[in-house]
Amino acid sequence: ILPAVSARKGQAFHFGSTYDTTEAPQSWFDTMFESFFKHVVSENGCKWDATEPEQGVSNLTECQACRSFATARGNSFRGHNTFWHQQMPAWLPGNFTASELVGNIIPQHVKQEIGGMGPSVTSWDVVNEVVGDNATTGMTALQCVLSKADWPTVTADGSGIPLVKDLSFVYAAFSTAFATAGPNTRLAVNDYNTGGQDAKTECEIALIKSIHENTHIPFDRLAIGFQSHLTAAVGGFYTKSELATTFSTLAKLGVEAMITEMDIELATNSTAFLRYQAAIWGDYLDACLYASNCNEFINWDPRDDLSWRGLPAAATLFDGEGNPKPAAYEVAARLENFAAGKPE
Ligand code: XIL
Question: Which GO terms describe its molecular function (predicted)?
Fold first, then answer.
């Protein structure tokens, strides 16, 4: 069905899931990534602690193994991520000055990782989760980033004093990514609790505009990743029309929108909540499918027993034994519907 979806969109539509080579059972992964998921993100293997365990020592073994798994099944691959305040290598936090970080450490890492993985990557999360949760409307991009409570832990001295007080670390990461990535690779900012009409989403848009203005990377190489770690509860997700409004704002700029880490926690693993979950999943997928500028949709963790949100959260498309849940059938139906040229 995905080739038909891509044909109707007029460009490749990448629908897939996280994968790590240590996850089992392998036979289930083989089947699912041949038939249902056709796009791969390494869940942890491309993060900074994995890829540069010692300063200046590149280790792309797991990141590349995940991409090889994808390629062997005719699947595409997305990169997550080159900069995040979590899963940093132990040698990094607190050990460098602002000018060392911005001038050397961050660009050197981005270059070794993106360069080492080569051009066959659909998109990279260049910076992950740099916007604060208590952002307020009208903030500048810098205010958005400085409002993040745990941001300084990345680039701070031993007492937690933030060293980098401007967006130079973001611009350095993006400039290096742009100079290093393949010509078709989109470069993304990626964050949670984003997608609708609210201050944090406004911040993502302000940030992508400021990256464009300061690095001169064309808008048509940039993207905003909407992680979409949701809950099936009032206020736990955005509506389809809220997402569509945001995606169309980005389309006017030429910026791509991506659903990058979709999962939906259930309050109760009951039939009613499984149907609620399916409906939300279907709406997110439709918002992406019917937008001209949304071409990647990643489900975060392929099955409930492997989910970072825990088995009881039942947050993925497949249950703890790997059997499809109502949301998996809903997703398949929405893809069929789109491919058949029907309205959302
Ligand atoms: C999570 C992984 O799923 C876990 O296995 C790991 O222990 C912690 O990170 N936002 C992100 C992802 O951008 O990288 C996180 O992944 C989930 C939240």
Answer: hydrolase activity
Amino acid identity of 21? Answer: T
Contacts of 101 (CB under 8 A, 6+ apart): 155, 163, 164, 169
**Contact, 242 vs 197, CB < 8 A?**
yes
* Domains with residue ranges and CATH for the chain: 2-339 (3.20.20.80)
Our answer on whether the CB atom of 44 is closer than 6 Å to any ligand 1 atom is: yes
Give per-residue burial for 200-215: e unless 16+ CB within 10 Å, then b.
Answer: bbbbbbbbbebbbeeb
User: Do the Cβ atoms of 162 and 151 come closer than 8 Å?
Assistant: yes
The 3-state DSSP class for residue 324 equals: strand
Kindly report whether the peptide bond that precedes residue 324 is cis, defined as omega within 30 degrees of 0.
no
On the 0-12 / 13-18 / 19+ scale of CB atoms within 10 A, 296 is buried
Instruction: Quote the ligand 1 centre to 343 CA distance (angstroms).
Output: 34
229: enclosing H helix or E strand: strand 229-231
Give nearest CA residue, ligand 1 atom 7.
308
Query: Model-level pTM greater than 0.90?
Result: yes
Our answer on whether the CB atom of 28 is closer than 6 Å to any ligand 1 atom is: no
pLDDT per residue as tens digits for the range 73-110: 999 999 999 999 899 999 988 788 888 989 999 999 99
Predicted complex ipTM exceeds 0.85: yes
Ligand 1 lined by 263 (C-beta under 6 Å): no
CA of 4 to the centre of ligand 1 (A): 31
For 84, the token pair is 């995040």
